[in-house]
Amino acid sequence: MKDISIDIPYATGISRLGIERALIAAGRDLGRLRLEDIALVEDFHTMGRIATYQLVELTGLTQRSRVLDAGSGIGGTARFIADRCGCPVTTVDLTTDYCDTAEWLNELVGLRDRIAVHRADVTALPFADDSFDVTFSQHVQMNVADKDLLYREARRVLVAGGLLAIWDITAGSGGDPGYPLPWAERPEQSHLVTSNALCGAIETAGFVIEQCNDRTEQAAATMRAILDSPPDPIGLHAFVPNFAEKAENLTRGLADGSLRAVQVIARAVR
Asked: Facing residues of 92 across strands?
């Protein structure tokens, strides 16, 4: 597969090594690793596993659901869904580093047979029309300039009546946030739009918005509590460079109004 020319800060090439070192330092047995052992390190988005749980609960997944996680990172959402709901999950991420790390973790926790990992661009998904019942997208669109293309592609691979479940950061009214942020080292890597603009792009692509919940206050409070907690050897800092500063800037942006956190459920209608 040829390289995809999108300027993003994620591909360090050492994600697996960093996580492996953190797990060993915390006394985890890699030969008997449980899903809960990696809960603090695998959800690379605001509020972590709390946000994943809330979003999954809104979708009503069953064992028969065909699920896509578009922009899956190291696969935390996919593993949570596969374990909790028992359904097959397909993942897509742009970076080889994250895909390789996801497959390694899937194997360690015994979920490799339920999760199919693909390296691909979320704006050019390698799947046929009507392939999935539910698509998850968590903290993805801020790196994608063409929102219309992103959500048209999400609509194409969903069946009529299927759900698009989004947990994302949008632009607020409090000025520009500070950088670096978890998804962008510098402003030109970030493509934030307002919540209204985001929902407009989703609707234009063929969806009806069923829920658009602003979770900014909860996100800011949760992130502040996480930052103020005693350090844990297992965490996103294990593989995200300069994570403490990025998380601090994100938390400040949520508190001062320059960033918003939104939870969206949209249904494919045409």
From this structure: 70, 118
